[in-house]
Amino acid sequence: MSKSLQAIRGMNDILPEQTPLWRYFEGTVARLLDNYGYKQIRMPIVEFTELFKRSIGEVTDIVEKEMYTFEDRNGDSLTLRPEGTAACVRAVLEHGITGGGQVQKLWYIGPMFRHERPQKGRYRQFHQIGLEVFNLDGPDIDAELIIMTWRLWGELGIRDAVKLELNSLGTSESRGRYREALVEYLSAHHDKLDEDSQRRLKTNPLRVLDTKNADTQAVLVDAPKMADYLDDESRAHFEGLKARLDAVGIPYVLNPKLVRGLDYYSKTVFEWVTDKLGAQGTVCAGGRYDGLVEQMGGKPTPGVGFAMGIERLVLMLETLEQIPEEISRQVDVYLCAFGEAAELAGLALAERVRDQLPNLRLQVNAGAGSFKSQFKKADKSGALYALILGDDEMAQQVVGFKPLRGQGEQQSIAWDALAAHLATCVVQG
Questions:
Q1: Which of 119, 352, 407, 415 fits a 20 to 30 Å CA distance from 264?
Q2: Can you tell me the distance from the alpha carbon of 136 to that of 169, in angstroms, rounded to the nearest whole number?
Q3: 429 falls in which pLDDT band (50, 70, 90)?
Q4: Could you read off the pLDDT of 93-137 as tens digits, one per residue?
Q5: Residue 35 to residues 29, 127, 146, 324: CA-CA distances in angstroms?
Q6: Can you give the pLDDT at residue 77?
Q7: What mean pLDDT do residues 237-253 have?
Q8: Partners of 48 in the beta sheet?
Q9: Three-class secondary structure assignment of the chain
């Protein structure tokens, strides 16, 4: 017997009962970004592999181990995007929309791909909402990104479950001086490092700082600190960021080991972390990348951004039971019609109601059926109310109105008064 077809491991279907929560989350974020003046951009899922090697760094885990890379029929090496910043930078350069110092405040949404070991909250196809700002170099825009996420957590009801961690990586020059000091220190303790950290010591030593190995963490206690190597410009920038967060009242923790996993970061880096999701504690992270545009062939252009994982944040909403009641109900009103004449009249009546109440979720029964079977479907839909249209109602040009979820008697409503009645009842319901 042939093997049954299944989704690829780590690439999941999002089923109909799950999508209302996804749409709620995505809609909440989109409205927030609209309110702050950000514009959406949409980039391709596939890019030339060289884009990610040049931007992320060839010795990062993403490029070395995790990218989905293949050769197309033209012999070009292509990669399913593992993150969004590089693709967004490529797009703004290609279309020249940051030239002449133009400020661009952009956001995007979509799937990313990394060949990782699938586990709860970490998948091979995962979804992100990302945000990138170009041609603003002050700490005020860094603060705005963090303030927006803080407001988002409040709107979602998860603010008490997340913590902000901050660090500054300084300029490339100050980071180079720090890297030399860190390598010297770690080399003196080489035998105490775990195997992965020994490898990173030669390729990307700053990544040793975010190791999860307990023995290596013990070695890092007395390691040099990035803060001692910051240049004056980076130190002033970081102080300016902290002052703005203090002014708004956003709590944060300074984490000198926070380096992020991508080579292009400089100055500000931050992560929103939680202890509600087990090992996958980061739900939103980002920072400043002032040298990336130039590194990719453009003119020197300040940049800063972040990305948030939709799967993890949806999981948080479920874990903390912060799911609005209205999104668990996909139907407000269910119309039951008995007989062909009633079905035709019901379709026309439903469309008139939709004209007057465009946000009403009104489902019309399809497939006919007995009184009992239609009411069973109405109840299963989760609707608050059932509308009943049969021979008697047709004769009087009324519709039966029956509450399905609470107290109240069935009553008759004139067709021309139905929309006004539903507007009152559904809002109250």
A1: 119
A2: 18
A3: very low
A4: 999 999 899 999 999 999 999 998 888 878 999 999 999 999 999
A5: 10, 22, 15, 21
A6: 95
A7: 97
A8: 78
A9: CCCCCCCCCCCCCCCCCCHHHHHHHHHHHHHHHHHCCCEECCCCCEEEHHHHHHHHCCCCHHHHHHCEEEECCCCCEEEECCCCHHHHHHHHHHHCCCHHHCCEEEEEEEEEECCCCCECCECCEEEEEEEEEECCCCHHHHHHHHHHHHHHHHHHCCHHHCEEEEEECCCHHHHHHHHHHHHHHHHCCHHHCCHHHHHHHHHCHHHHHHCCCHHHHHHHCCCCCHHHHCCHHHHHHHHHHHHHHHHHCCCCEECCCCCCCCCCCEEEEEEEECCCCCCCCEEEEEEECCCHHHHCCCCCCCEEEEEEEHHHHHHHHHHCCCCCHHHHCCCCEEEEECCHHHHHHHHHHHHHHHHHCCCCCEEECCCCCCHHHHHHHHHHCCCCEEEEECHHHHHHCEEEEEECCCCCCCEEEEHHHHHHHHHHHHHHC
Kindly list the distances between the CA atom of residue 182 and the CA atoms of 53, 61, 177, 373, in Å, as whole numbers in the listed order. 25, 20, 9, 72
Amino acid at 71: E
Dihedral sign for Cα 42, 46, 49, 52, please. positive
Q: From the CB of residue 4, how many other CB atoms can be counted at a distance below 10 Å?
A: 5
Mean of all residue pLDDT scores within the chain: 91
Token duo for residue 18: 């799950």
